[in-house]
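Task: encode each sequence below as structure tokens.

Item 1
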Amino acid sequence: MTDLKVGGVPEHFNYPWYLTLKNKKYTQENINLRWQDFPGGTGEMCKSLRSGEVDIAIVLTEGIIKDIAEGNPSKIVQTFVKSPLIWGIHVGAKSKFKSIKDLEHAVIAISRYGSGSHLMAIVNAFNQGWNVTTLKFKVVDNLQGGIDALTTGAADYFMWERFTTKPLVDNGTFRRIGNCPTPWPCFVIAVRNEVLEKHHKEVKKVLDIINHQLKDFKSIKNIDKILAKRYEQKLEDIQKWLKITKWNEGKPITKNLITRIQNKMVRFNVIEKSENSSKFI
């Protein structure tokens, strides 16, 4: 039995992993795959890939590209979600800010440096024509940290996946004053180099199993109701999310795509320069 550890955010995107684990699909292939939740997001997962705490991670594209460029000994093996991620731009319920343009000099809550909430704040600032070198950040660790920071006034706005935060908008914790979609496919699967070398066959088997699950995921009976209940979402929000979310079902990631994403990230001042794309895949 081969032991492998996989990590991801505890959000609706990763429910297909839960199903394959629940149905013991990996055990049937002599793989003991264990799941670990990472509420802190991509920055936390990149750190855990580096330390060997996890072997496989479902991470934001921009975060892992930046971290591999900075020495993370991992590779992207495929895209997981090929549609963009819609980031909600949130302020506290009592905030004086009314629109995105009011936020130019505001303090941004981020889960950690190199995370999606950090990098997408830079993308949003670039889109608004602001000076990205003067942005002010406050590290808050995770979504709960973002709630606390906006409620106490320790930070002014916080960017997080808009469907995950929708219940917080509905209950009056946050006000969403805009959206910022990623200009690239949002989630990829990354694996530590050492694991790819030692357990190439097993990693391929894991990918085959999850990709097979993704093929029929949207047609599972009552999947909208199951997801709404599990993730405490309104049914109509989950239905909207299912409509716009497209999973990749096993097509390999191309050097061309990585090059295009890197070029955009350079333009957005997220990374300094493009590297050879073979370094990432």
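Item 2
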Amino acid sequence: MKRFKSLLITWEALLVVLLVVSVVIGSVLSPFFLSGFNFYEIMSNIMEIAIMALPMTLIIIAGEIDLSVASVLGLASVVLGLLWQSGHPLWFAIGVALLVGLAAGCVNGLLVTRLALPSLVVTIGTLALYRGLAYVVLGDQAVSNFPTAFTNFGFSPIPGTEIPWSGLIFAILVIIFVVMLHFSRLGRQLYAIGNNKEAARFSGINVSRVKLALFMLSGIIAALAAVIFTARFSSARPDNALGFELEVVTVVLLGGVNIFGGRGSLLGVVLAIFIVATLQSIFGLLNISGDIQTLAIGLLLILSVLGPNIARRIQVVIARRRLVAGSS
């Protein structure tokens, strides 16, 4: 019974309640909210952010951050489009785009690990650098003459369902990342690094190598999101996913991951992803302006920093009271 009560006051439990409340509100405010088509829209519109949030979770738990993910997406999308426009096979263009993401993540990781620069400063710089490179590569043009099979992958749901193909990719990645974070030696290392980097180093963990691998993973996953984004909109543009980094960080922190590292779970992040997607759907169905939606994302970001800390403090207070009551 005590274990059940403690579970009820966890941040993940509060996120479940918030998700249920959001769905109820959406169904009351719009008769179209619970339709199959709207479910497809909810899933499609959040998938690139959701996919990039998975490696971001690992990076923040390790005490770092990557604000360049949306710019990596834009650069990889442009490279994909330019290679296809130049007559290269689509598989080759996708492969090179993934390598571009891997290289971009490697640059971030090397600057953080080899030069000991703060990841916040590094990735703010590369955010501008990679977006600028995208404009240099393609200018203000767009590539949109992609093959039908590729665009169908972005537009069409899995046959017989209302689930987009990107949703299947996300589900597979969630399983992989859950195993990595919660059931592997790497996951234990990430929590150790996030809690105390120096202690982790003295315990034999190669902190620099782990962090470099995380940034490279973030880069290649951002490039994968670029492939999905390009297919969904059938367009490769330098401004693709502009501003997405804010939403990626928001869902990770709203999911209960500590901005200072060492704490968090993928369950909370997945719940936060669907909360944000549900709220975006409600705003869209009610024709609420983009400015108000940006304001809501900003408020969610503030809540995502304050909320988990408040929940943990409540847990500490309850634990202390139980200890006092037990000793008396």
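Check on item 2: The mean pLDDT is 90. The radius of gyration is 21 Å.
End of task.
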